[in-house]
Amino acid sequence: MATLGIPGMVSGLRYEYGIFKQTMRDGWQHEQPDHWLARPDPWEVARPDEAVEVRLACSFDIHAGALRTVRHRPSTLIGIPYDRPVVGYGGRTINTLRLWSAATPDYFDFQQFSGGDFVGALAETLTAETLTRVLYPDDSTTEGKGLCFLQQYFLVACTLADAIRRFRAAGNEWSALPDKVAMQLNDTHPTLAVPELMRILLDDAALGWDQAWDLTQRTLAYTNHTLLPEALEKWPLPWFEIMLPRQLEIIYEINSRFLDDVRGRFPGDDGRVARVSLIEEGQPKQVRMAHLAIVGAHSTNGVAAIHSELLTQTVVPDFAALFPDRFNNKTNGVTQRRFLLVANPPLARVITDAIGDGWIAEIRRASRFRV
């Protein structure tokens, strides 16, 4: 995007640790902590002046080394952004990678510390920092899955709060949102953007449902990366009840209106209604995040021609029948600048001598090169 001169911002979480760092000793692999933030990063700029609040319907404590929810005790997290430049080829456009780090509004409870509760004085800070401490929490445990769920909401809430703040600061009316802001949901992980954006438009902007839903759909687009049904995320409904009850209310209403439309278009087809519902029946019930993304976005794309074809034919054929115009393909690829210009300078020189250097910024021009 930067090379093409398209302004944009990528949002993610500022993790402290990666999965692991691999070392070899005596021919055997040894796994060590991969501390990503161990050294200062000269390209990273902290922006505490642009921090945002993230409100939850519960709070957390640390029990036996794991993050545990405390019901009915609302809490607030602070998202602190850290920016790094993404420089386009030639340096004419510089976009931003913005990574969010979690903190608490009060970094230290002096009263607890003075009373001798040294661990309790830091408890809220420790639980907040746990949120962005590790990439890919252990999903073999309920606690690890819950932390992943919370990470996803934290990313979505920070990103939307930041984008909406900048959108409104520019003096825009709410009706201009899809014209000024386009958000791409990269797989199902940020799908909570659908109910969160609706919450902002309904509760903060005081818009009506129909207008809020129209703006949400026209603002969001979804990229699917997997054809494996088991890899399409589903989150237990009770987690929404504990952490995000307002967002769950909105999901219920989205689902109710959507299923009414399905029944109207396919009367008597209860099997289809069950297959496309945003809520999967079971113990416990679960929210189907891929379904929510497809319904809440104006576009759904696969990442290769065969992938996009199989997506509509085998994974979500009912949705392809409902929304044939929403599905499309956007082929993922590699950049010729890294994998040819940098990786193979002699070949790059041959191509440039033959057709000029325009291919470096625009790969389509490389089609003029013939051996």
UniProtKB/TrEMBL annotation:
GO terms for biological process: glycogen catabolic process. The keyword Glycosyltransferase applies. It is an enzyme of class 2 (transferase). It catalyses: [(1->4)-alpha-D-glucosyl](n) + phosphate = [(1->4)-alpha-D-glucosyl](n-1) + alpha-D-glucose 1-phosphate. InterPro entries: Glyco_trans_35 (IPR000811). GO terms for cellular component: cytoplasm. GO terms for molecular function: glycogen phosphorylase activity; pyridoxal phosphate binding. Keywords: Carbohydrate metabolism, Glycosyltransferase, Pyridoxal phosphate, Transferase. The keyword Chloroplast does not apply. Belongs to the glycogen phosphorylase family. Allosteric enzyme that catalyzes the rate-limiting step in glycogen catabolism, the phosphorolytic cleavage of glycogen to produce glucose-1-phosphate, and plays a central role in maintaining cellular and organismal glucose homeostasis. This is Alpha-1,4 glucan phosphorylase. It comes from Luteitalea pratensis.
